[in-house]
């Protein structure tokens, strides 16, 4: 596995329905970046209610995901199109699990949550139906917390350090987000993994509602 692209976002205007907003989803490749517990130095995070912070400091997508999308959409897509900070060549063997760690040079990342698509992504892709397409594709990429800071550079090798096999996979967490009648036992199990706080709050609230019945 290798780091194929490092992508940094600057503030740009984006039209979402009838509203113009500032976004950092437009990412451009750079050769090297300093990565801290709050993400890449200089990267713009506009919607801080839903993105960024220590538990979602870095967003990662893979070249394998891009290959799938380019075949699906019939068009070329450059790294950074999905707003990811880091583009990996792949995620390695086996499913990605919450708690998996990836060593990129001196930087150590820990998988914390799948990306849930929103209107900003749809507007970025120029397709009002893209949220649905992204959901159906089940290729969410992952958010990660930064356990060890440092500088990353284009082309670095990546080492995967697998989480315990009992941890929920990225896709299990992703699918549960859309489950309108989640099982309490499944929610309890999902919550045993080191989820990002935003996701944890959502699943904990759903569990609380079920247990109150």
Automatic annotation (TrEMBL):
Domain of life: Bacteria
Matches recorded under Gene3D superfamilies: PK beta-barrel domain-like
InterPro entries referenced in this protein's UniProt entry, alphabetically: Benzoxazolinone_Detox_Enz (IPR052353), MoCF_Sase_C (IPR005302), Pyrv_Knase-like_insert_dom_sf (IPR011037)
Domain MOSC as annotated: residue spans: 27-161
Molecular function via GO: catalytic activity; molybdenum ion binding; pyridoxal phosphate binding
Protein known as: Molybdenum cofactor biosysynthesis protein
UniProt lineage: Bacteria, Thermotogati, Deinococcota, Deinococci, Thermales
